[in-house]
Amino acid sequence: MITIVSESALEILSDDAMLSRLGDPCQASNLEWSTFSWSDVRELGGLIAFDQRRPIHVLVGKPADRVHSDRVVSHVWSGPIPPGSLYHLAPGVLIASPGFCYLMASGSLSKPRAISIGMECAGLYGRRHDALGFSDRNQLMTKAELVDYLKGAKGCYGCRNALRFLPYVLERSRSPMETAMVLVLTIPSREGGFGLPRPELNMTIRPRPNEFSLSQRSHYEVDACWERQRLVLEYNSYSDHLSREALDRDAMKANSLRSLGWKVLVVTRAQLEGDALSVLAYQVARGLGIKRRHPKAEERDRLLEELL
Question: Tens digit of pLDDT for each residue in 220-239?
Answer without folding.
Answer: 999 999 999 999 999 998 87
